[in-house]
Amino acid sequence: MKNLKSKDPYAALRVKEFKSFLSLRFAMVFAWSMQFIVIEWEVYQLTKDPLSLGIIGLMEIIPALSIALFAGHFVDQNEKRKLLMKCIVAFSVISFFLVYLTSSFAKDSISTPWILYGIYACVFVGGIVRAFISPTIFSLLSLIVPKNLYANAATWSSSVWQMGSVLGPAIAGFVIHWFGVTTSLSIVLGMSIFAFVMLLQIETKPIMNKKIGEPILQSLKEGVKFVFKTKEILGAISLDMVAVLFGGAMALLPIFATDILHVGSMGFGVLRAAPAVGSFITIIIMAYFPVHKRAGLKLLGAIFGFGLSIILFGLSEWFILSVFALFLSGVLDGVSVVIRNTVLQLFTPDEMRGRVASVNGMFVGSSNELGAFESGITAKLFGTVRAVVGGGILTLIIVVFMGAKLPSLRKLEFPEEGV
């Protein structure tokens, strides 16, 4: 593979297969984020109960936590392209069932409680699929680009992730408003099919793990042990988990849009897209001005600022200010995303990428759903505004504590050439 200059902000984009990888990743993130938003909206319209939003998160976190480590072991033992194909097909089947459950035909023939049970079941199965998709995509990236481009590739991969996160929720809000929930979920199904086509453009990759057939318990033990002894990885994913778990207001956005800001489905789409827009802009800028020096301090500062922006959002009763607060949270989260992904790519050996990505998924990915459940519970008990503001305050406290206790994280820096 051609050894391209890592200081070129477009270096990774000059790798042909990486372009196909970005296309399929965009399609899957777009589909997944749009699907989750549409489901949140539909469930809240059916129940008008904030706890139902928390249950959505719970239904996904149970399988995500239960099989994440096993999924990482399985990814490290198998060829990544074929495994990702199976995951995309499974996601497409789930999307098809959600289209049916939200259709007028289903609503005329199935009672509302059973429709809810069906949606929760789809989310549960989707959590299983997601447990395999994340480590597979993470591992596949490192097989497509040369090592000296890992940092650059991680930045572009993060930007595409954020682009999908921007357009998925925004388009979801608009399509729900204009055409309804079923059409929105049909678009999700179409995007998953597009992702499958893009994956066909990538060649089969070698299995880097030399311990094929290794006992699963030994394999899982090595993966967890590696993460906990590598303080750079442990600190980065722990901080991100804290921000998502306690500082996340996203699961409660249907309540803010409907009952507090009174902006309807259109405003809901804008609110949901605002943080992703901010994060996307930040990540694009960081492709030209990558973080090298004082990466750890910048990570701590970004998550502290994220907590402040969440507090501002929780206190706001003005739509424009709420959008700005969420946009600011996205800007700061973008810094966190790039630094965390760069840490994972640079500090993880090839043969252990699936397991490390799975542990990361348990810390960070699952905290989205756990955060949604936590937000739903606290909103039910203490009120929506108090739940969001309290979560932001907890984020500030924990960031200060972790910054004081992890000197290796404060001193974290990246090499100039990303090798």
Secondary structure blueprint with pairings:
Blueprint: H1 16-47, H2 50-77, H3 80-101, H4 104-109, H5 112-144, H6 150-178, H7 181-199, H8 216-229, H9 231-247, H10 253-260, H11 264-288, H12 295-315, H13 319-347, H14 353-382, H15 384-405, H16 407-410
Helix pairs in contact: 1-2, 1-5, 1-6, 1-7, 2-5, 2-8, 2-14, 3-5, 3-7, 5-14, 6-7, 6-11, 6-13, 9-12, 9-13, 9-14, 9-15, 10-11, 11-13, 12-13, 12-15, 14-15
Describe the structure in your own words.
The chain has 419 residues and is mainly α. The chain has a single domain (12-202, 215-410), classed as MFS general substrate transporter like domains (Growth Hormone, Chain: A, Up-down Bundle). The protein has helices spanning 16-47, 50-77, 80-101, 104-109, 112-144, 150-178, 181-199, 216-229, 231-247, 253-260, 264-288, 295-315, 319-347, 353-382, 384-405, 407-410. Helix 3 packs antiparallel against helix 7 and helix 6 runs antiparallel to helix 13 (319-347). The longest helix has 33 residues, at 112-144.
Structural features:
single chain, mainly alpha, Growth Hormone, Chain: A, 16 helices, 81% helix, disordered N terminus
Mean pLDDT: 81
Largest sheet: none
What is the CATH architecture annotation? Answer: Up-down Bundle
Order of helices and strands: HHHHHHHHHHHHHHHH
Structural shape: globular
Give the number of domains: 1
